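Quick review question:
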């Protein structure tokens, strides 16, 4: 073996040692750079082959090339092994055992009082056999007013009482059935639910509603739950029994309800429903004061209700609602109002400030 080929063999041995010794892909890359990189001895030697005398050139060239190819293969193989081992180690180190209990439970906060109250009310009606359905917050004049038997002159149609959607084509035509608006109540879903399902129907509809109002008892956006029951032989007594069950579940087993005549366009007769005050007896607190909650009246208004007006059923008569054959009741309540009454929250806006000191109390 010539001096040159011996040198090549030595370089190859040194490189192999470095390759075998590399314990990580990073170390292997270092070994590659120092033994096969641009400044490394073996490539240098290869570049010098042309200057050798012709007798040596072929032999040395071949030896150096073979050494280089062999080393490249060795690096490739070792690199594959190291990368695989590193991946395996990482998968083990970073693995998450999703079967483990989160115990103790991390402090993740709690549900907002409005959400808690919505769920509590939903539970009462689900237990009575009602389905929970939801509907669009952007409604149309048709569903929000017309199909609910609102006269064209009904004042809540005015832009002072209803947010109309600016579609970019000038001021909205508030009498066109398809003019979009933010629903002012969850009642439009009475109509949509009946369009989607023939009678009998028992649904409640929680959701956001919108009105241009802002003070201690009004926010521009708040929540309602609508109820609708349509079947054969439903009477006002069914309505009263249902609402009594609801009032007792939410405000306590001692409660009574009373119905007062009222007007809503979509119910006939319409009633406002009061629950007996749960803060006093007969309007007087235990220490002889006029009760601040019911203002000494012994009753607290909680919702609007009534027997569904036949005109509303006629609006969906194509969907199987014949007012001569089926009838029922509807009701609608403000979730915030129920929560405030139940928990003594004095100002509606507190529920939207999201001050942690308030939220933590529920
Ligand atoms: N939509 C009414 C409101 O927002 C509440 C209401 C009253 C709903 C009577 C009803 C009902 O379903 O029958 O003031």
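Suggested answer, residue by residue:
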């Amino acid at each position: 073996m010539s001096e040159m080929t011996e040198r090549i063999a030595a370089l190859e041995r040194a490189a192999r040692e470095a390759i075998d010794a590399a314990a990580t892909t990073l170390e292997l890359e270092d070994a590659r750079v120092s033994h096969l990189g641009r400044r490394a001895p073996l490539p240098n030697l290869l570049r010098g082959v042309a200057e050798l005398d012709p007798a040596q050139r072929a032999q040395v060239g071949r030896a150096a090339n073979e050494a280089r190819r062999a080393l490249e293969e060795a690096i490739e193989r070792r690199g594959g092994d190291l990368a695989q081992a590193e991946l395996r180690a990482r998968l083990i180190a970073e693995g998450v055992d999703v079967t483990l209990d989160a115990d103790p439970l991390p402090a993740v906060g709690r549900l907002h009082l409005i959400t808690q109250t919505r769920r509590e009310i939903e539970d009462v009606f689900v237990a009575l056999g009602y389905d929970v359905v939801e509907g669009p917050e952007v409604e149309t004049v048709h569903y929000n007013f017309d199909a609910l038997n609102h006269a064209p002159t009904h004042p809540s149609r005015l832009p002072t009482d209803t947010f109309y959607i600016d579609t970019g084509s000038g001021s909205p035509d508030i009498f066109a059935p398809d003019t979009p608006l933010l629903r002012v109540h969850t009642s439009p879903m009475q109509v949509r639910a009946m369009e989607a399902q023939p009678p009998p129907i028992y649904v409640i509809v929680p959701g956001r509603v919108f009105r241009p109002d802002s003070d201690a008892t009004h926010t521009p956006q708040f929540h309602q739950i609508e109820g609708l029951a349509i079947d054969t032989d439903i009477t006002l007594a069914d309505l009263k029994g249902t609402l009594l069950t609801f009032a007792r579940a939410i405000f306590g087993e001692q409660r009574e309800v009373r119905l007062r005549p009222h007007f809503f366009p979509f119910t006939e007769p319409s009633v406002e429903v009061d629950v007996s005050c749960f803060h006093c007896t007969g309007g007087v607190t235990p220490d002889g004061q006029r009760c601040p909650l019911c203002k000494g009246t012994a009753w607290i208004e909680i919702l609007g209700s009534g027997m569904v007006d036949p005109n509303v059923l006629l609006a969906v008569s194509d969907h199987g609602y014949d007012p001569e054959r089926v009838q029922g009741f509807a009701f609608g309540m403000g979730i915030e109002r129920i929560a405030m009454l139940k928990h003594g929250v004095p100002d509606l806006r507190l529920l939207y400030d999201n001050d942690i000191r308030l939220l933590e109390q529920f």
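Why it works: The two ends are 90 Å apart (CA to CA). The first strand starts at residue 131 and ends at 132.
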